[in-house]
Design brief:
The complex is a heterodimer. Chain A is mostly helical. Chain A has 11 helices and 1 strand. Chain B is mainly alpha-helical. Helices cover 69% and strands 4% of the residues of chain B. The chains are: A mainly alpha, B mainly alpha.
């Protein structure tokens, strides 16, 4: 019973932290660029305000446009029940493995892209087309990184991967793990719409991917989509943090280990947010047709990860 | 056993009656008879399959059962599974056909169409039950010819006759390969039962030759690259319910045949068999989806996706065959089961999508996606059914496409168990290609659904579109329910598929007792998941979020306004994103594969180059790989045919002379052979 309570607590924590994480990256980036920047909790105010505004829907749009935000949001929230954010093993560990996580996120992207096409605006179509292109090209890297992890852990289920890496600490420094981490990091940038693939801060329509796709959304629908995007960032960060560097994740259910788990999660999120902020300050956005090159780099990293896991087994 | 015989009798009676009735009846009565007989036959084959799978019966029917000698029928697990596939799709297609073919009344031969539909269904059933080579080949040929006749239904449309020619030529090349293969396996006597073929001891060379011939023959029918060229031509031009049957079931006969020969008659082989099947599967999957992305013809797009999905099926089967060589029984079973699961899933969602495309064609009169749009408001039910099919084929949870792709992934992930690292290293590449394929398929179906059904109509026909008649909706609804059901119930389907493989030499039966627990724990798979719980969670969350918003007092006002357009007044359909534009990024990325030809001509105003009068842009993609492979042999064939034509003197005496000569040569050969 306590397991289920923990599941819900974990999902609630993820929902609560997600806007803050987005705010943190923005704030760190601003500080690095010698700006004062909005406070970390700015996204919470934005969400609150969006929930209180009325929705404007295009007259061309169908029911799909109104359903998509809920599908995107709920599929992302569903993922937080499967990903080990604080505790392993979770009762829902057998409900879905890493492949399920990846395809649940793809489900959200699929409906968001359809919703981008629905109002008939060229911006939405452009965003949808680009988003699906990037998502499709990131897919093989994700699959290979899963392969590399499954190879050393003997399972694609997240709880097992975490547990196995904890019992053999040397594994997390093996070349296979390191390369897979690099590959998955690039994919994280692509999937969550960060620089150098997409610019989350731009308002120049022609350079946007994700932002162009959701251009027609407003009010509570936009709030749900923004929240889901923040949640997706948190999910990818905690996958990177907990699959490759699992220390701190609670195995037992004592209050002390749980406190350590929360603290280590916060540390990991801050470190990763800092890395992304530094990266986004240092590099410029890639031209759209240079993105495949970056993604093929991540693909090669992942392939090397699997091969080295094979050979060093 | 008695019920099995009853169902078989119904099955073998309904379709011939339907065929005869079609030739006699006209109008709605004729269509009703065709659909009624087809439906009862399909339900009988579904029932027979379920009974045999459920009870583990293996009914055998010898030649005396039928008036023709030499025919033998037997229903084992594999046949039963394919009977279920034929039954599900056949039932939906016949019901749909009742409404769909109404538009053909008075324009095309309804008698031929109805008769051939029943002949096709009969031949499919006989084929999967065949217990000797003669029965199998006869049914195979009946299937090919009846499908050919139906492809030709709209013979006066451009491209139809050419497509039918390609189809019949390649399918007969495949038939020749299959005949040679069965002659090898049966040592020259085609009436030898499959049982004696199983026990025959063949030299490794003969076995290899038989395998290659089987892969060629069955691969042509299944549409694996590079033997797929006929498929994207023939499937779109057939009437839509026939396209659904062809893409859903007929190409699956290639899968059935390959399994029958490799895991049953030959009972497995060296590792390169599986490796070859896996490799052609991977190439087909990727090529299929890449060409589908560039297609604007809705039905051609779906046809290319058939190539892709057959590729995925072959990947599962190929992995299974490889594991079987290395004695990894659980993984071998997992591989073949994943291929079979994807077979029935693809049958359901591809047939559903073709029926949906048929409804769109019925309503708008065009297959060109660039002339559609906004259909979700004009035909909401068709749109919903098509959306379910699109999500399923894109491999999105919690629908059936995801369930089987997950199993294929698990089978491929098991590749690390192969003791030889140089062989095992194929598997991660296959995993990556499968992931790329499914990602691209998702992109392609965003395009297919988004451009066809969403936003503003791009033509007057699309604007005036109407919902499909009830019978067509019923056909689509059946398959949509099947897609959802197959997605929710892998815990029941997988053990059933496992039990259908009991008794084959290729995959051992001992390990086949799958746990019927809710989380799907498959022997050999390195992960586990639960589709029902996943679906339940998604539905609960999607229902809870709006409820929570209401309770927490989020604003519920909603205003309908114009689409934002940088200040422009009035939006027209020409401002929308097109299918071509949607696929443009991928076309650039894979430019080397597509090698598109571009043709841009701009008309300037005579006074100044700053004023453009008109811009014409044309871009085409010719699959150059196909040209590379087919152009030369076709040229040579044409050459040879021109040369042979010289023999055709036109004189009866000359022909008599040829006949005599041929007869004497045959007699001498027969004498000398002995």
């Amino acid at each position: 019973m306590i397991g289920y309570a923990l599941e819900i607590a974990q999902a609630a924590l993820a929902l609560l932290l997600a806007p803050g994480l987005v705010g943190l990256v923005r704030w760190l980036k601003a500080r690095l660029q010698n700006r004062r920047g909005a406070p970390v909790w700015q996204p919470y105010w934005e969400l609150t305000k969006l929930f209180q505004k009325e929705v404007v829907v295009s007259s061309n749009a169908s029911w799909l446009f109104r359903a998509a935000p809920f599908i995107v949001f709920s599929s992302t929230v569903a993922v937080t029940f499967l990903v080990p954010i604080l505790v392993v093993p979770l009762p829902f560990d057998g409900v879905g493995d890493l492949l399920v996580v990846v395809y649940l996120l793809l489900l959200g992207t699929f409906f968001l892209a359809l919703a981008g096409l629905d109002p008939g605006s060229p911006f939405g179509g452009m965003g949808a087309s680009r988003e699906m292109t990037v998502a499709a090209l990131a897919e093989p890297t994700v699959a290979l990184a899963i392969f590399a992890l499954a190879l050393s852990a003997g399972s694609t289920n997240l709880g097992q991967i975490v547990a196995r890496t904890m019992t053999s600490p040397g594994a997390s420094l093996s070349p296979g793990h390191l390369l897979a981490f690099g590959a998955l990091f690039i994919v994280t940038l692509a999937e969550t719409g960060r620089l150098p693939i997409d610019n989350p801060a731009t308002h120049l329509e022609l350079t946007m991917i994700h932002e162009a796709m959701v251009l027609e959304y407003s009010g509570r629908y936009l709030a749900l989509i923004e929240w889901a995007a923040g949640l997706k960032l948190l999910i990818f960060f905690s996958l990177l943090g907990n699959l490759f560097i699992p220390w701190g994740v609670s195995v037992g259910l004592t209050p002390a280990t749980l406190a350590v788990a929360v603290a280590s999660l916060l540390v990991k999120l801050v470190v990763l947010a800092g890395t992304v902020a530094v990266l986004e300050t240092r590099i410029a956005k890639l031209r759209l047709f240079r993105v495949p090159e970056l993604l093929s780099v991540s693909f090669v990293l992942a392939l090397l990860a699997v091969t080295s896991s094979f050979l060093l087994r | 056993m008695a019920i099995a015989y009853c169902l078989l009798t119904v099955l073998l009676a309904a379709h011939p009656i339907g065929a005869v009735a079609a030739l006699a009846g006209r109008g709605p009565v004729g269509r009703g008879l065709v659909a009624g007989c087809g439906l009862s036959g399909a339900l009988a084959s579904f029932g027979l399959g379920v009974v045999c799978l459920g009870t583990g019966l293996v009914p055998t029917f010898d030649a005396a059962f039928l008036p023709l000698t030499g025919l033998a029928l037997r229903v084992d697990g594999l046949s039963a599974f394919f009977l279920v596939v034929i039954g599900v799709v056949g039932a939906a297609v016949t019901v749909y056909g009742f409404g769909y073919s109404a538009a053909y009344e008075g324009r095309y031969s309804m008698r031929l169409l109805g008769a051939m539909l029943n002949v096709l269904l009969l031949s499919l059933n006989v084929q999967v039950m065949a217990d000797n080579a003669l029965t199998f080949l006869a049914a195979w040929e009946a299937m090919s010819l009846s499908a050919y006749t139906m492809v030709l239904t709209e013979h006066d449309r451009p491209g139809t006759v050419r497509a039918a020619h390609w189809y019949i030529a390649l399918t007969h090349a495949g038939f020749a390969a299959l005949t040679a293969m069965f002659l090898l396996l049966s040592a020259g006597d085609l009436t030898t039962s499959f049982a004696s073929m199983r026990s025959a001891i063949l030299s490794p060379g003969t076995r290899d030759a038989a395998f290659v011939l089987a892969l060629l023959g069955f691969g042509t029918k299944a549409g694996i690259a590079p033997l797929h060229v006929w498929l994207p031509m023939a499937h779109p031009v057939a009437p839509s319910h026939v396209s659904a049957l062809m893409s859903g079931v007929v190409i699956k006969m290639g899968v059935y045949g390959l399994l029958r020969v490799t895991i049953d008659l030959l009972a497995g082989g060296p590792a390169w068999w599986g490796g070859l099947v896996l490799a052609v599967g991977t190439v087909s999957a990727l090529l299929g989806v890449l060409y589908a992305l560039m297609e604007h013809d809705l039905k051609r797009l779906l046809a290319y996706h058939s190539v892709e999905n057959i590729g995925i099926i072959f990947m599962g089967i190929g992995a299974g065959l490889m594991f079987q060589t290395y004695g990894l029984v659980a993984l071998a079973t997992l591989g073949v089961v994943s291929g079979l699961y994807h077979t029935i899933n693809h049958a359901c969602f591809k047939a559903l999508l073709f029926l949906g495309a048929g409804a769109v064609l019925h309503a708008t009169g065009t297959r060109n996606m660039e002339e559609m749009g906004g259909l979700i408001k004009r035909m909401p039910r068709t749109a919903l059914f098509f959306l379910i099919g699109a999500c399923a084929i894109a491999g999105l949870p919690p629908l059936n496409g995801f369930a089987s792709e997950w199993l294929v992934f698990q089978a491929l992930l098991g590749g690390s168990a192969i003791p030889q690292p140089e062989v095992a290293v194929i598997m991660p590449i296959a995993v990556a290609m499968l992931a790329l394929t499914s990602g691209l398929a998702a992109a392609c179906f965003v395009k297919a659904f988004g451009i066809t059904f969403l936003a503003i109509p791009r033509s007057r026909e699309a604007e005036l579109a109407h919902e499909a008649p009830r019978s067509m909706q019923a056909g689509m609804a059946t398959l949509a329910v099947a897609c959802v059901g197959l997605g929710l119930a892998p815990f029941a389907v997988v053990p059933m598929l496992g039990s259908s493989l009991v008794g084959f030499g290729g995959v051992a039966p001992a390990e086949m007792a799958f746990a019927l627990a809710l989380p799907l724990r498959v022997p050999g798979a390195s992960g586990q998941m639960s589709m029902p719980l996943l679906a339940l969670g998604l539905v609960l969350l999607t229902a809870l979020v709006p409820l929570a918003l209401r309770i927490l007092g989020a604003d519920r006002r909603l205003r309908v306004g114009d689409t934002w357009g940088c200040g422009r007044i009035g939006q027209t359909a020409r401002m929308e994103y097109t299918a071509t534009a949607f696929a443009e990024p991928l076309r650039r990325i894979f430019a080397e594969l597509y090698r598109p030809t571009r043709d841009l001509s701009i008309d300037f105003h005579p006074a100044s180059r700053y004023f453009v009068q008109s811009i014409e842009y044309r871009s085409e993609i010719h699959p150059w790989i196909e040209r590379l492979l087919y152009d030369r042999p076709l040229h040579a064939l044409h050459h040879a045919a021109t040369w042979v034509r010289r023999l055709q003197g036109g004189s009866l005496h000359l022909y008599l002379f040829y006949l005599t000569l041929a007869f004497l040569a045959l007699l001498t050969a027969a004498r000398w052979w002995r």
